[in-house]
Amino acid sequence: MARRLADRLATARRRGFVGRRDELARFQGLLADQDAPRVVFVHGPGGVGKTALLHQFEWLGQRQGRRCIWLDGRELAPVAPAVVAALGAHLGRGPGEDPLAATGEVPDLLLLVDTLEALAPLDRWLREELIPRLPADALAVLSGRERPSLGWRADPGWRELLVTLPLDNLAPADGRRMLAVRGFPDADSDAALAFTRGHPLALALVADARVQRRSTVAPTTPDVIAALLRSLVDTVPSPDHRAALEACAQVLGLTEPLLAAMLDRPAAAALFEWLRGLSIIEHGARGLYPHDLVREVLAAETRWRNPDGYATTQRRAAGYYRAQFQRADPATQQNLLLDFAYLHRDRSVLKPFLGKMGPGGTDADTLQATTAAESDRPLLRSWVVKHEGAAAADLFDHWVTRQPQGFLVVRDEQGEPVGFSLQLSIEEMDDRDRRTDPLAAAVIAHLDRNGELSEPETARLVRFWMDRDAYQDISRVQTFITLQFSRSSLSTPFLAGTYLTFRDPDFWADGCGHLDYHRIPSADVEIGGHCYGVYGHDWRSVPPLAWLSLMADREARPPPAGVPPLDRPQFAEAVRAALRDLGRADGLRRSALLRTSLADPAGDGTDRADALRDAIHGGAGLLEASPRDRRAFRALHHTYLRPAGTQQLAAELLGLPMTTYRRHLAAGVERLTDLLWQSELDARRR
After folding, report:
1. For the chain, which residues make up each domain, given as ranges?
2. pTM score
3. Cα torsion angle, 538, 542, 544, 548, sign
């Protein structure tokens, strides 16, 4: 059944496609001639029809018998492991196999990469590592808003192997055909073409708006897309249809169950089918999504027009992702992490995980990260000598021989090295490594004391990281390296812990604390006259989804104004009292926690008591997401969140002796208090 629907979808796309005859003819020529250029770069502004053209390329490749692999930058974290994992999934490769090597053995391969701008940090990696490993008869198509970077254009080899296809608006005849295919009356097409100037997305919006209200469209603002979209939204069949369209703009990919959850209804099949029929809605492997320009305008419109409804729908989507995450396989969990980060893309802490750096940082397009080549090592070593001394350089030499794959070089716009980092796999260290590097030995000892790694768990130690000139001072290179660490942590399966090395650990206390990295005093060491400290994050205690929730939550609640703060003991007692009163209808109306930022409404119309209730349940949800805290969460759940009635009944429900049950309950209350207290401290710092 799924295959037949896929065939129907492909047929509908071909039937609705118009124009681009020169581009299609050029591509067919490349398919037929193995001596022709092997990389096609399609570029043009948003809404000009790049994705539609790539679907036609895919169809032409399939007709010739090509093995087609489609990657969408919107659905991938901008780190090499995420792309490699996606290739492995397409090729059916297992965890122990190398997808890059397998890709190089696929005959008649057609690789299509859409929305390339979302993978901007990987531009050099694509150019130097992935695409050169494709078979000689392969054809790669890259599509993005910008023309090829200087690295593609300046390289004499790529100049010979690269074809650039810039896209512009449709010619009048093609624009008229596009309107006709969508049922737009020919009598009105001249006015629509004059207004849209042949922009394909604008034409699609004109047609959709006309179908919805069966009358002409007469927008009054100069912004074509925004005006047409408002016209469409104002003419949808019902408020439920409008809510479905707005929900689609919030998430990376919309499935039918997710839509039902976001609209808080048992089923949403009819609304999902309606969305799928709109010209402005695309179909991807992970669901429906609007065109990028439509998404931007629609999301901005909804945020200011209905902020309470926007926040409520967003919270429901987050709850859906959390529920799915618990029962998902590792590959699906990585997708859900990206979904969750995308849902909160307007939060400054999470924006960088989606490609571009946030305000005050640097544009990811200007810096690239690649694996260090052997020729890079003398230069990197000279930086270590300059900033950390000869003793540290000896350790650099040791790790070059032991884990050379862990070195990452940061390069500027001209490809010149401007920084580097070394990330070590702790599970690969042996006794010799412990004896050689005292800092690595201290981190391993800390891990051993707090739960040894078990198969297939892994842990990472960032042993060296520096800006060429600024060393570890705040700089655009430092920001970029920090972002790479976080992305790597979120995309590494079975990661138990990440540990970061600092020469001035006290300076980084607030920043690390905000990112939930905690100082490990036992790992303080002196090397070559310099003192170093380590901050670590335990991903087993606060897993990636819980960490993303924490980051989003820390920006969601503004600090309370003019409220006398509780100290730590008062706060802990207030949490215990709130848990006891949680099951009463008005039990939180007199809670001391109403004086904290936990009770600040999230903009969805709730009062302070309801917001506090949500905060307590949200904190408990973080415990549930942590494998280490799950037993404590269950005791907390059956005692306070959904009480069994008495502690004796709760213990029986859990199948535990009373002493064990009480120990788990005490641990749950303590961990919940810690999480809520940390949230309160974050709010006070702001």
Report:
1. 2-166, 172-234, 239-343, 364-543, 557-685
2. 0.53
3. negative
